[in-house]
Design a protein that fits this description.
Layout: H1 9-12, E1 35-37, H2 40-45, E2 50-55, H3 65-78, E3 83-87, H4 91-103, E4 106-112, H5 118-126, E5 130-134, H6 138-151, E6 155-156, H7 162-168, H8 170-179, E7 185-189, H9 194-206, E8 234-240, H10 245-248, H11 270-280, E9 283-287, H12 289-303, H13 309-323, E10 332-337, H14 345-350, H15 362-372
Parallel strand pairs: 2-10, 3-4, 3-6, 4-5, 7-8, 7-10, 8-9
Antiparallel strand pairs: 1-2
Bound molecules: ligand F0G.
């Protein structure tokens, strides 16, 4: 029997990534996440499309950030870095802290005071990051880490670091492998806009298209590999109404949304994300906080998939855009569910009914069960 097991996305896609045989790979066996076809929601809502969720919440730290962080930390270590830094709405800080721990280097994370989900904060703390809460939002943090990393011995691991997007592009390869070709549409949340840009780099590379938006080379792709797909999907990006610079077509100074992961008004991958939307023929749409929370509950109750609010915006967006007839019938849609619901237990509990409290007696409990059977 072979003992070869899955060892992470760098080893799997090494010929398409900027690593060499001598690179020490820092990995927690991220990637290889499940594609789950929605069965109940489409039947219930009369949807004519085939919908698959790529559940990125099942990465080692519970979000898609691990894909980019394995590459960024691998390259930081290769360059001799002893410390990394990032600004974060939570998930990037969790991933940075975990991969720095794995590499044996220091991590510093800047987070907006009070606006980060508890699970994410606990991860950064447990993995030994120096957690710095700033009196400001993510955009302030992003500006500060750029300043700090240019004057101190710190390797910046936000998605402005091109290696992050290189790691994140591998989601497109996995989707193509699962479906046999690219889907017709791929929908996802948009915050700092690195992920939609990375999806486009991956799909372009897979289809053998010149990577006009690849941020590591000059347009003659450095990692062409062999063709994996015959086409590229339309990319659709969803933003929370209170933090929707792509809908307003300009930066937003005071972003606000219950989906704290995407509470961002000044996305750093602004140009790359516009290019991804335009080249793919997709679009941006916005959803309200109420729509986001209803969709989170709907997905959890109808399909057994618990994702965080920022991820649930994809389901909220689908509800809206399918009703408007924006997706062709009988098409294949892939939905990136970026983070696990367990990241943000407070928001989940706040919108659910409290458990009933009874005496530890058979009859009392039996009566409640009878009511609900
Ligand atoms: N979904 C989740 C769960 C996220 O954590 C993020 C971003 C996004 C979507 C948006 O992705 O920024 O590439 O457009 N979180 C970052 C963080 C900003 O710090 O964890 P994006």
């Amino acid at each position: 029997m072979s003992n070869s097991h899955y060892t992470g996305l760098i080893n799997k896609y090494r010929e398409r990534l900027p690593v060499s045989d001598s690179t020490r790979v820092i990995s927690l066996n991220e990637g290889n996440t499940p594609m789950i076809e929605l069965k109940n929601l489409p039947a219930q809502l009369g949807w004519k499309q085939q919908i698959f969720c790529k559940f990125e919440g099942l990465n080692p730290t519970g979000s898609f950030k691990d894909r980019g962080m394995t590459m960024a930390v691998t390259k930081a270590v290769e360059a001799g870095a002893k410390a990394i830094i990032c600004a974060s709405t939570g998930n990037t800080s969790a991933a940075a802290a975990a991969y720095a721990a794995r590499a044996g280097i220091k991590s510093f994370v800047l987070i907006p005071d009070g606006k980060i989900a508890l699970g994410k904060l606990s991860q950064a703390m447990m993995h030994g990051a120096t957690v710095i809460q700033i009196r400001g939002n993510f955009d302030d943090g992003m500006r500060l880490v750029q300043e700090l990393s240019s004057s101190m011995p710190l390797n910046l691991v936000n998605s402005i670091n091109p290696y992050r997007l290189q790691g994140q592009k591998t989601i497109s390869f996995e989707v193509i492998e699962a479906l046999g070709d690219a889907p017709d549409y791929h929908v996802m949340p948009v915050g700092n806009a690195g992920n939609i840009s990375a999806h486009w780099i991956g799909y372009s590379e897979a289809a053998g298209k010149p990577c006009g938006s690849c941020n590591l080379c000059d347009g003659t792709c450095a990692y062409p590999g062999s063709k994996l797909s015959t086409k590229r999907p339309k990319l659709v990006g969803y933003q929370a109404s209170g933090a929707a610079p792509f809908l307003r077509e300009s930066m937003v100074d005071q972003p606000e949304t219950v989906a704290t992961a995407i509470r961002i008004g000044h996305p750093v991958s602004w140009d790359l994300a516009w290019a991804a939307q335009k080249e793919s023929g997709g679009w941006f749409e916005e959803c309200s906080d109420d729509e986001i929370l209803s969709a989170q509950k709907l997905l959890a109750k109808c399909e057994g998939i618990f994702c965080e609010p920022a991820s649930a915006i994809t389901i909220a967006g689908l509800c809206k855009d399918i009703a408007e007839g924006r997706f062709k019938e009988n098409s294949k849609i892939v939905c990136t569910l970026t983070g696990h619901g367990l990241k943000d237990p407070d928001t989940a509990i706040a919108q659910s009914d409290a458990p009933v409290l009874v005496n530890a007696e058979r009859d009392e409990i039996g009566a409640i069960i009878s009511q609900h059977l």
